Amino acid sequence: MADLRHTVEDHKGWFERIVSKIPFYKGYKQKEERREADMLLRNHLAQQLAEQLRAAEDVASQMLTGAGLSQLDEIGQGNTRLQTLIDKVKTAAQGYAGLFDSVKIKEDELDTLYEFDSQMLLKVDEIGEAIQAVQTALDAGETDKLAPSVRRYVKTVTDTSATFDQRKDTILGLA
Q1: Contact call for residues 46 and 117 (beta carbons, < 8 A)
Q2: CB contact at 8 A, 110 and 96
């Protein structure tokens, strides 16, 4: 995925280019652009996670009959955790600190936050691989591999959510 920080910069209008010459405005605007790029990245991340949730829900519906029925509750827990993660990503703080806030966010901290969110896209792939392992076990009728595959999916979602919870520490510079 392309770095959205450059995309935001490239879409400036003529007025924004002129006012960027005003002292203090340029630094303020650059911070806003970093926040906007991170917001776009988080929206993309939420969409990718939502696609994985749809795939997991499809797998869960296939488990309504046969050997998969015994794992339905556990995959449902994973799906609930994934939906909770999606909601956290959508509502996560943008790294904003206003003029009078006690925590001031600098440009390099916003860049760190963007990189953190960018790395979360790798976690989407891990979730997708775990879902695919469940699907493969179902398709092959391998009941002995189904339960471990479902547990892997739930653990991957849980670990990804725990990783995203560290985002706040990244904003505060504690990570």
Answers
A1: no
A2: no
CA R_g for the chain: 20
Residue 46: how many CA atoms within 13 Å on its side-chain side? 15
Retrieve residue 67's tokens.
Answer: 């050997």
Judge contact between 31 and 107, C-beta under 8 A. Answer: yes
**d(C-alpha 5, C-alpha 36), whole Å:** 8
Report the alpha-carbon distance of residue 173 to residue 29 in Å, rounded.
Answer: 22
Q: Model pTM? A: 0.76
Give the Cα separation of 17 and 53 in Å (integer).
Answer: 41
Contact 151, 75 (CB under 8 A): no
Which tens digits make up the pLDDT trace of 110-130? 777 778 888 899 999 999 999
Q: Which amino acid is at 97?
A: A
Report yes or no: 32 and 20 within 8 Å, Cβ to Cβ. Answer: no
**Which whole-number Å values give the CA distances from 28 to 33, 54, 142, 172, in the listed order?**
9, 39, 57, 19
DSSP alpha helix (H) spans, 14-106: 14-19, 25-62, 72-91
